[in-house]
Write a structure and sequence with these properties.
The complex is a heterodimer. Chain A is α/β, with parallel strands linked by helices. Helix content of chain A is about 30%, strand content about 20%. The longest helix of chain A has 20 residues. Chain A is globular. The two termini of chain A are about 40 Å apart. Chain B is an alpha/beta fold. In chain B, about 20% of the residues lie in helices and about 35% in strands. Chain B contains nine helices and 30 strands. In chain B, helix 4 packs parallel to helix 5. The termini of chain B are far apart. The relative contact order of chain B is 0.13. The chains are: A alpha/beta, B alpha/beta. At the A-B interface, helix 7, strand 20, helix 9 and strand 25 of A face strand 7, helix 3, helix 4, strand 11 and strand 15 of B. Strand 25 of chain A pairs antiparallel with strand 11 of chain B.
Chain lengths: ~475, ~425
């Protein structure tokens, strides 16, 4: 078995691992990212609220509080540098009873301590003036103008792609099965390869405890906290402009109603601790709850316009805070664990924080020629006609619409396949281009996307999968089992 | 280049509309089709049963389409393939500006006097049904599976459960069986099938495939590929009944749970839609609330037989040609905005007890032909009932019906002379009643 040696190995190509890899790539280091799935952005990073939280929730003094506020501040500039969808749309925490005002006041104070700017407490009527669709039951609200929404796939993929462009090697379908301490670092065994690095970053999401516990006696315990969501048709995305939270509970920030950055409307998440770390199934109760609780916040939640539902697992660590530190008894092994909400918002700041921590212990010289900027896949649906003309002139494939619901063209799909860390699966194309994310949910476009993937990757359509090994679309040829 | 009529969609509706418009004298007709060939979804419907009304013989879908395509080519009606319309807007002098894209011409806008909407429909996806469980590969809408099997010759699965007894689901139960898959069950949420009776017999009964009425899928297992689904019986409120769950191992779940007219373009143009059909409200000329914009086929309301699509589309083509002939400046007619907007010049059709909707929604006696066809669907299964028609509350028609079912489209013929006998007629009510009197 080949032994592949690196200066740093990051385990997990979710948004956290990708952010860390990109920051580390600013210096002269050989870096690898190991990802068990067939694509980046396949775990918690793909199934969450897509919110850039303002930062008033976390207890002052915690890492969550610090990195949330920093991450939120970095997000806008990063969205321009790396070209992913982000919008500052503001958020409201609503309370239905007059007594709730005290709790809103607490959040307000917490927010001020955390350094959140522009917070205001509003009466129910003031809140409704801002958001006419808010329920008449809303008695008071906390308004945070710095709250935002972000495309979770866009952020994750942009970070990873940019890391790859700057020399980071990504190994997909490469699960870390075993980690062993050696003299000057760690030996990581995967099914087919063996890796070695003096520095390991554990960004393995709900499995970060398992990896940590392989090298440390101070055990971590991460619980998968499932959140179920319902996504509604783009026709309905204009119901609210801002993100509407209810007062937080012990289990988290509760069920929100928000426009997504692409103009859909999202309700969720529920919060349920489960045993199965692969348990991304939705439940009848969970979906009903997401809609019922969401419907309390706004008038006439368009529950009949649901186009899909999904569940994500937050990596909840017992301490309640992010665990971002070098393991006490495992030098060079850096945990980035328990990255539950506000993990997406914090990711840009987590990347910087971890890179600084590693630089302090394992210094490396600055790299010349780091390319910070990245241009995303053109979006024909959102382009004006002039821009569309220009794209089509460049490549007529930008005039060939494959996904009619989201107006995604063959040109965009080709770009998604052929760019660094390109898509190899139907889900990969979907997360990069939105093909199949619309109201027909890929009924019309999936055969066409499968065909394009097969053609471009020089495969048979029978080899094309939804999300990697074991998820093929086709099981054989007509009549082959009749003979 | 200004057109007389642009037809959006080259499926059965668009083709029949184009031919009828041409026959009625329209000159500049252009069909815009998003797929690689004309014919629409018929191209993947390789089973027979098409054309019994139109051609008095049984054809397959591609054969039925081929007859229309041949005529369109013979008549030299121009069409553009792989061309997607992205916008229809009102333009000067009552014209419409249709913006589309394709590889050859890039992005382009064409002005036209009239537009015929013939975009068809899409299948209701899993998400819209809120079926809980995992989201693995192996869940297809029946039409997507049909495309893989009938166009690509590839099987999307080996052991299949089908949710929904719409016609495509029934047809696919038979097709998958013939191609070597095991179809374990068809579950239907309602206490009756949403498909044609003949399809239940020919596609399920003949192959011993169980149809489980009042059942639904309550869980989908399998993280990468479907491993099984759990069915449960539902009560009268369509809620699953605890204790009735049955797990069925399978690698595929096909969904045939209804079709939704594709009216996103129409909505952007400002066309009013009927919530009962998700298609436009139209008058007797199949014209929407926007002058010169007509609708036909499954974008107007979901049909059961393509023969009726062709018939309806031909009417739309003829009316559109008349509109073009009469010139846009004389278009001062009132438009049909809502389900029931009777007025001096329009009689409204009211879908009362047991009737989900009617097409058209209004009739202008001055514009109607000697006989007006009214199409509708019923809301439930009715046996031994009477279909009644009232003119401003006065009973006019009473037809005995042995069986009426939501899966079959019904029709009623109104004669112009009947309407003329009621000079101040405002409202025609159609309802189902138990008693003859």
């Amino acid at each position: 078995m080949d032994r592949l040696e690196y200066d740093v190995i990051v385990i997990g190509a979710g948004v956290t691992g990708s952010a860390v890899a990109r920051e580390l790539a600013r210096r002269e280091r050989r870096i690898a990212v190991l990802e068990r799935e067939s694509d980046i952005c396949e775990g918690t990073s793909k199934a969450n609220s897509g919110i850039a939280h303002a930062g008033f929730d976390a207890q002052p003094g915690t890492l969550k509080a610090k990195l949330n506020v920093q991450g939120a501040r970095l997000m806008k500039e990063l969205s321009e540098e790396l070209d992913f969808p982000y919008r500052q749309n503001g958020s409201l925490v609503v309370s239905f009873e007059a007594e709730g005002r005290e709790r809103l006041q607490e959040l307000y104070k917490r927010g001020e301590e955390n350094g959140v700017e522009g917070l205001q407490i509003l009466t129910g009527d003031e809140a409704r003036a801002l958001e006419p669709a808010l329920s008449d039951e809303v008695a008071a609200a906390l308004y945070a103008p710095t709250g935002g929404i972000v495309c979770p796939f866009g952020l994750n993929i942009a970070l990873a792609e940019n890391a790859a462009v700057n020399g980071v090697d990504f190994y997909l379908n490469t699960a870390a099965v075993k980690i062993e301490c050696e003299q000057d670092g760690y030996r990581i065994l995967t099914k087919e390869k063996e890796f070695f690095a003096p520095v390991v970053v554990n960004a393995a999401g709900v499995y970060a405890d398992a990896l940590h516990n392989m090298v440390s006696e101070h055990k971590l315990h991460i619980t998968a906290r499932r959140g179920e969501y319902c996504l509604m048709d783009k026709k309905t995305g204009g119901l609210v402009k801002s993100t509407i939270f209810q007062l937080p509970t012990a289990n988290g920030k509760g069920i929100l109603v928000t426009p997504t950055v692409h103009g859909n409307l999202l309700a969720g998440p529920t919060a349920e601790d489960i045993e199965d770390k692969e348990g991304v199934n939705t439940t009848a109760e969970g979906l009903a709850r997401a809609l019922a609780v969401g419907a309390k916040s706004v008038k006439a939640l368009p529950v009949r316009q649901v186009i899909t539902s999904f569940a994500g697992l937050r990596a909840h660590e017992e301490s309640g805070d992010f665990i971002i530190e070098e393991a006490q008894d495992a030098p060079g092994f850096f945990d980035v664990a328990g990255i539950a909400s506000p993990g997406l918002t914090s990711a840009p700041a987590v990347g910087v924080y971890v890179a600084e921590m590693i630089q302090a212990r394992f210094p490396a010289p600055e790299k010349s020629g780091f390319i910070g900027a990245r241009k995303g896949i053109p979006c024909v649906a959102e382009a004006d006609n002039e821009e569309r003309q220009r794209l089509i002139a460049e490549n007529p494939a930008y005039a060939n619409v494959v996904c009619r619901c989201e107006l995604v063209t063959e040109g965009e799909i080709l770009d998604a396949i052929h760019r660094p860390l390109g898509a190899t699966t139907l889900d990969g194309v979907k997360r990069r281009t939105r093909a199949g994310m619309g109201r027909c949910q890929s009924g019309f476009c999936s055969p066409k996307v499968v065909e394009i993937l097969a053609r471009e990757l020089h495969k048979d359509i029978g080899e094309i999968t939804k999300s990697g090994e074991g998820s093929a679309f086709l099981t054989g040829y007509n009549k082959e089992t009749c003979m | 280049m200004r057109q007389d009529i642009i037809i959006i969609g080259g499926g059965p509706a668009g083709l029949a509309a184009a031919l009828a418009a041409k026959e009625a004298g329209a000159e500049q007709i252009l069909i815009l089709e998003r797929d690689r060939e004309l014919g629409g979804i018929l191209n993947q419907c390789i089973h027979n049963g098409f054309g019994l009304h139109t051609f008095k013989e049984e054809l397959t879908g591609p054969e039925y389409a081929a007859r229309y395509i041949a005529k369109v080519e013979q008549e030299k009606i121009p069409f553009l393939l792989e061309t997607i319309v992205i916008d229809i807007a009102k333009a000067e002098n009552g014209d419409k500006a249709v913006t589309a894209m394709n590889r050859e011409r890039g992005l382009f806008t064409i002005h036209t006097k009239a537009v015929i909407l013939a975009m068809g429909c899409r299948e209701r996806p899993r998400g819209a049904l809120n079926i809980p469980g995992f989201r693995p590969a192996g869940i297809y809408s029946a039409g997507t599976a049909q495309r893989y099997v009938n166009i690509e010759g590839r099987m999307p699965g080996k052991e299949v459960v089908i949710l929904g007894s719409g016609d495509i689901g029934l047809i696919m139960a038979r097709r998958m069986t013939l191609e070597g898959a095991k179809v374990k069950a068809v579950a239907e949420l309602m206490p009756y099938s949403g498909g044609l009776k003949r399809n239940i017999v020919q596609c399920l009964d003949d192959f011993g495939i169980p149809l489980k009425l009042s059942h639904t899928v309550v869980d989908i297992r399998g993280k990468k590929r479907v491993e099984g689904v759990t069915l449960a019986q539902v009560d009268e409120n369509k809620k699953p009944i605890a204790g009735t769950e049955e797990y069925i191992p399978c690698d595929t779940l096909l969904l045939s749970c209804g079709l939704l007219p594709e009216n996103e373009l129409s909505l952007n143009l400002g066309v009013s839609l009927n919530p009962a059909t998700s298609g436009p409200y139209v008058n007797e000329s199949l014209e929407t609330n926007i002058s010169g914009v007509f609708a036909c086929g499954n974008v107007l309301h979901v049909h059961d037989l393509v023969d009726y699509v062709s018939e309806e589309a031909a009417a739309a083509g003829k009316y559109a040609a008349a509109y073009v002939r009469e010139a846009a400046d004389s278009q001062t007619r009132e438009k049909t905005e809502t389900a029931c907007a009777g007025s001096e010049t329009q009689i409204c059709l009211e879908a009362a007890e047991g009737i989900r909707y009617t097409v058209p929604s209004t009739i202008s006696p001055s514009h109607m032909e000697d006989m007006q066809l009214v199409r509708f669907r019923v809301a439930d299964v009715y046996k031994e009932v009477f279909l009644k028609v009232y003119f401003d509350g006065k009973p006019v028609v009473s037809q005995k019906k042995r069986v009426l079912a939501p899966g079959e489209m019904e029709q009623l013929r109104l004669k112009k002379e009947q309407l003329q006998a009621f000079p101040d007629l405002k409202k025609i009510t159609i309802r189902i009643e138990k008693e003859a009197g």
